User: Fold these one by one.
Assistant:
Number 1:
Amino acid sequence: MNVTNKPSGGAPLSNDALEAHWMPFSSNREFKASPRMVRKSEGMYLWNQNGDKLIDGSSGLFNVAAGHGRREIADAVHAQMLENDYTSPFQLGQSKSFEFADRLAQLLPDPFNHVFFVNSGSESIDTALKMVMAYHRARGQGQRLRFVSRERAYHGVNIGGVSLAGMVRNRETFPVVMPNIVMMRHTWDEAHLFERGQPEHGAELADDLLRMVQTYGGSTIGAVFVEPVAGSTGTLVPPKGYLERLRKICDDNGILLVFDEVITGFGRLGAPFASQKFGVQPDIMTMAKALTNGAIPMGAVAATDHVYETITGAAPENAIEFFHGYTYSGHPAACAAGIATLDIYEREGLFEKAAELSDYFLDAIWSLKDLPIVRDIRGIGLMAGVEVFPLEGKPGARGNELQKSLFWNGCHVKWTGDSAIVAPSFVAERGHVDEIVDALRRTLKDQ
Ligand code: PMP
């Protein structure tokens, strides 16, 4: 079968080409029988294989925060590739990675002055795990090899991240995971549906960590990993006081707190990072996605002065203290993209713009509450989960169908299970929000 898609005016895709690309997190057979292709993207919009325009309600995969097709980023990457396309990051430097790390340190909360570069969110999580191990070992506490995570968490797909992830389906084919991972309960509560922003109830769920301290001994636990707002399981906003309570239990027991800010970082919640939004400071932060506006793959792990100094200070002279890194850690083109991205965020005041649009956005999303198919809505900042009732005995099947229907109704929104994750880019105007919500309403009411 030939598809009518003509990327950039090229030839239609052949069947061989369709089969050649084994697509990630996709039902390959189903997709290839009826492909949904994007051949152009600009600002808030995508164009499909038929040339029809779609509004992007999820800013790609929550990463294209400054809108698609930013020329400043393309120009910066182009210039960098011509000047210095690659330098080994091991025991050798090129200025862009230092410059970008410095810019990030200025944006990050105060004690986060050290940035380790990776290539994705998944790599940032596995790197953070190793950082936790290196930290405790440097302090003579190498026995802290138990890690705490949470049900309904998504921490990427590398073995460390899958082990930590509380999404059972991501693990069922890959049961060989890290040992000694224990899960706290998630914070979604069926008794409190349609609560906007931080739920009033549920802070006591943080005491699950206390129970683990009592069960296993605090001195065996290395770190707690949490997404401040769980993203990929449909926007689960932390109850008021919950993150504060986790922080306190960590402090009392020498446990590190890791915030996975892969989605929440860079203005999504209306503050540069979730730690600022919620006023709780972790010890390590992971980030990716909007770090480069999605233009070039990149992730990063930020550490406080204390964590960095503990690890780097522990090694004897001339020894490598953190035996970890990637060929493409701090790639010059990715750093150039990242610097250009931060320039755009600052110049256009996009984090402030996201904060200003939030009330309008959440009002519009909450207007979907009257549709009988809608089971719950959750949201904060420019991020909302719209959950529909599942089809009997087939969790996720309805969400899958709705994602496809929405695409043909002129809107891209990422569904996860039976929840739509609506997260427009920060260049969105009110009219764009209306367009996204109208498409959702038209699609959901037909069900
Ligand atoms: N952590 C979180 C919170 C994420 O949302 C994601 C991606 N959705 C990841 C980690 C993994 O990022 P990546 O897909 O870039 O590996």
Number 2:
Amino acid sequence: MALRELTHFIGGKNTPSTSGRFGDVFDPNTGDVQARVPLADDAEVEAAVADSVQAQREWAAWNPQRRARVLQKFLQLIDDEKEDLARLLSSEHGKTVPDALGDIQRGVEVVEFACGIPHLLKGEYTTGAGAGIDVYSMRQPLGVVVGITPFNFPAMIPLWKAAPAIACGNAFILKPSERDPSVPLRLAELFLEAGLPPGVFNVVNGDKQAVDALLNHPQVEAVGFVGSTPIAQYIYSTATANGKRAQCFGGAKNHAIIMPDADLDQVADALVGAGYGSAGERCMAISVAVPVGKETGDALIEKLKDRIGKLTVGTSDNSAADFGPLVSSDAVGRVNDYIQIGIDDGAELVVDGRGFALEGHEAGFFTGPTLLDNVPTTSRAYLEEIFGPVLTVVRADNYEDALRLPTEHEYGNGVAIFTRDGDTARDFTARVNTGMVGVNVPIPVPIAYHTFGGWKRSMFGDLNQHGPDSVRFYTKTKTVTQRWPSGIKDNEGHFVIPTMK
Ligand code: NAD
């Protein structure tokens, strides 16, 4: 059977590639190549940007309410199709179908937020700032903006970027991950069907070459990126050196602090879901558990061991599976390497997920859940992001030692504390040096109308994703000082800077 050959999506059409370069899209359940994704060259990027520039002029002239109606229609279409989309997503990513539905839903919620754009774009107004003088500000779109997105949320993150960007009147070019590009392409088709003018949402598939062409293109005004930290830093520095606005979200090492007063059954349930769900391929996965005190730690390990023993690893379309395969064979290799590094550095291997094979799917990219106890904080297994189903336990003697760990870690995406004590929780939320904090909530991903963003090396830039920050990121403020005086023609010139008296 011939391989499915994917395209770009430019000017409202599936556009076959002319670069002659392709990447493989795998089915992680079987290890087979299931499609070929084009890797754009500079000329294809140029064509996409030129198309977006044209489309944006008309789109920006639509009033915000009319733009919001397109988003509303899109919500209807995606709702009708979400089951099929989830299966498609799951077949390229490897996450289970229910988890893929969550991926879509979290994206949809930002589209819902962006439907409020008429309200969100209202500027500030001061009447009578001086005699006969009014001052007002308006938020205008930037022009053509780009989103470069990771493999692990192929619906959610493109929607987090696209919905506010287009609602604000920009044209949006998506450069999705080359590992699971089919859902992003389908999103572009659905936007068109919802009434979005051709060219307002273009998709350019590709790798570093396409990204670099976008970063260097003078008509790209802003770049939103999500992915690993080294690439986030590269994109941020290149985009900003080229005078573009940029917000680049990177990797993570999310800690969960478990105080001795916490309900350990609840904690163990939460950690198993947050550590192993989606095979740990979430930027908000909990990868470090920090029980406070020996008793807490020993009891927690027993409860985790028990629950891990009951987990089901299966194909992504198996409704009984707790998690599916990793995205690639490289990812399996990387996870195995980190487990070995942890062991070599002195960690205790409590549950070993390496070598797991699913019967009938031996070539799939599977690995089982792993639990490492007493991981030294000097080990790369603690310091670096593993991005797989590995929960590491670092023991702390007391609250202050526990607080120090996420506070001093180079990543600062998410963190959680489990306690029954409000005073401890308040102290923790105030002092921890991390962008998103959960109190008895293991994956504290803020809802759509708040903002999402980590600190330290989890984020380069200032404004967060979605919520009010996204409107600030995708618009520029123009401030008008106006005066309609009577008899201005009779006034003499003023040579001193005007001030409000
Ligand atoms: P990645 O950095 O490999 O790729 C992300 C994007 O960058 C892709 O579109 C890819 O094509 C492009 N890219 C890759 N190498 C490039 C290069 N050398 N030059 C230019 N572009 C390049 O990340 P990934 O493996 O797809 O995603 C997983 C990572 O994303 C993890 O580190 C995870 O923590 C992070 N992530 C962060 C957040 C967040 O909000 N902070 C959310 C999701 C994922």
